[in-house]
Amino acid sequence: MSAAKDKSSVFKVKSVIIKVDTLKFSIRDSKHDLLYKILRPFATALIKKQIQKAIKDSITTGMEYVDGQLVAPDVHTSFYVRLILLYDYPTYQLPIK
Fold it and tell me: Where is the HAM1-like C-terminal domain (predicted)?
């Protein structure tokens, strides 16, 4: 994130990087164990990608909402200062376990 020069925005979300390292799931009472074992790696990759996309979109939307709230005229200055200080760090990575 970086502070935008535009006065209608306090900061801009440049990128959100989400990585799901491990994902374990199982299908119970399946009558097609061989098919499940064959398709599991493909399903795992697809599910991981969709989870990453959903989390990325949620964080982006949430931060854009916060930015919109900060631009509103009735925002408390102390909250504004704390938020700016919080985002002075270059990048954040959320640990997902």
Answer: 19-71
